[in-house]
Amino acid sequence: MSDQYRDDDYAGSYAEQPYDAYQDDYYAEDGGYPQEYAYDAPPVEPAAPVTPEPKIELVDQDGIRAFELATLGWLVGFVALLPFWGLLNDRGWTWWIWTCLAAFGIGAIGIELTRRRKARRLRAEGLA
């Protein structure tokens, strides 16, 4: 360890200081503490009423719906940008259109892969 933070005056122990516990203390010869130091009992709160848990359906664990919605969103973006082809081409922004088209293609592949994974899982569990 480096000596960067070492205190040169520190010799390994501190000199003992005289301590008189009763000097200037609240103990008086005739009384005690000027106030009572006791803890009160904590307040008792009434029990909360028990409410039944709501029944919640599980989300799609396989992700097929998520892939379908995302892929549909990219398709909508592609179709929405097609009327602006000329404007996007003038400004050099046609990559937006190609990004939507590529994402739609990747999403379509993802849908197929998640469907295959679900079918493989169901076959392994003996449900299909």
TrEMBL record:
<keyword id="KW-0472">Membrane</keyword>
<keyword id="KW-0812">Transmembrane</keyword>
<dbReference type="Pfam" id="PF10745">
    <property type="entry name" value="DUF2530"/>
</dbReference>
<protein>
    <recommendedName>
        <fullName>DUF2530 domain-containing protein</fullName>
    </recommendedName>
</protein>
<feature type="transmembrane region" description="Helical">
    <location>
        <begin position="66"/>
        <end position="87"/>
    </location>
</feature>
<dbReference type="InterPro" id="IPR019681">
    <property type="entry name" value="DUF2530"/>
</dbReference>
<feature type="region of interest" description="Disordered">
    <location>
        <begin position="1"/>
        <end position="29"/>
    </location>
</feature>
<keyword id="KW-1133">Transmembrane helix</keyword>
<feature type="transmembrane region" description="Helical">
    <location>
        <begin position="93"/>
        <end position="113"/>
    </location>
</feature>
